[in-house]
Amino acid sequence: MNKIDPLLKDFASYLSVERGLSKNTVDSYCMDLKGFSAFLSDKGNNIKSFTREDIVNYMGKLKDDRRSTASICRFISSIKGFSKFLIIEKIISEDPTETLRLPMQWERLPKALGMDDIKKLLNLDHEPSAFSLQPLFIRDSAMLELLYSSGLRVSEIISIKVNDLNFEGGFLRVMGKGSKERVVPMNHRAMEKIKKYTQELRPDLIKNRQSPYLFLTNRGMPMTRQRFWQVLKKFGDMVGLKLTPHTIRHSFATHLLEGGADLRSVQKMLGHADISTTQIYTKVTVDRIKKVYLEHHPRAK
Which fold has domain 5-105? Predict the structure, then answer.
């Protein structure tokens, strides 16, 4: 009996007694974990100290062994349950499975706007009616331009502080997931719109108070996630597009890759911990190229 068997026995007991799972389910979980344990053992590691990278590598092995998507999904469920058990037992302090995605998510292609739609969206500031109908349009236009300029998440854009901006260098300091700081570039248009907002509107919003945050509500409070979604919906309605923050972020990444950017650079700008998360965009660009080829090459059909 190897060293990890007692731990797996404890986990099996936890699944059946505390979680009330059936014997078949418990046996399946343990079978998955025995395979993972053997994989770790071959690499000189053990099941008490595995990392997210170990899990991803093992999933890659399962794919290479032509295991079904259902089998890989079940392994992910097994390892997630086991990780929670290890945390409960205080054997580990951080969950290595926290950001794992299911296989069906690997193939889910992000929706990206075409360049014509992006131009239509970001050129609304050339419409005089936009300013007269929307008192906060200067702020909203700056946020939207920055969202596409730098590929930010909603949580990141509403958390930007004035001191995070570096206009001279043309970059922005961002606090991303897991409190990881990164530096992302800003384009000229985004900087100009932000300057216009900070000079013409932000002083009226903040009045005589102080706030470190860049984007403020009409009451001078930090922008909220809900309010940002409302702003985006309003812009989408103005140009006849259904928008989400992810749509803009996906467009940012897709357009960079289509323009020739390398995957590692895009990964850093997006703040992805694992490059496999960024690699999905390469499939997006390949699919677009194939579509253009099929539509326009005289011998493609």
Answer: DNA polymerase; domain 1 (1.10.150)
